[in-house]
Write a structure and sequence with these properties.
Elements lengths: L3 E4 L3 E9 L6 E6 L2 E5 L8 H14 L6 E5 L5 E6 L15
Parallel strand pairs: 2-4
Antiparallel strand pairs: 1-2, 2-6, 3-4, 5-6
Length: 97
């Protein structure tokens, strides 16, 4: 099972495992059908979720409102939808901030 899929021909859905409180925000690796992302934000008061949305919006070059957290607001396992991304999932592996 893949960690990403396309829905409605244009929206990208990602299955993620989040590690909050890391030294820096970056993509770590793929394991067990999820992409692991390390976040520099702490898991307090929604800061990690906000940081994740900002990180993904920047990587996919979309407005913040185009990134939505479908499942996992209180979990490390999350499902995120990105509407009309400018690129495919490979942009997550670029060095761009």
């Amino acid at each position: 099972m893949s960690w990403y899929s396309f829905e409605n021909g244009r929206n990208l859905v990602l299955k993620l495992y989040i590690q909050p409180g890391a030294r820096q925000t970056k993509v770590a690796d793929i394991r067990e059908g999820e992409l692991k992302i390390k976040l520099a934000a702490p898991p307090v008061d929604g800061k990690a979720n906000s940081a994740l949305i900002v990180f993904l919006a920047r990587r996919f070059n979309v407005p913040l409102k185009y990134v939505s957290l479908r499942h996992g607001t209180q979990s490390r396992h999350k499902v995120v939808e990105i509407c009309q991304p400018s690129g495919g999932p490979e942009v997550l592996f670029s060095e761009k901030n």
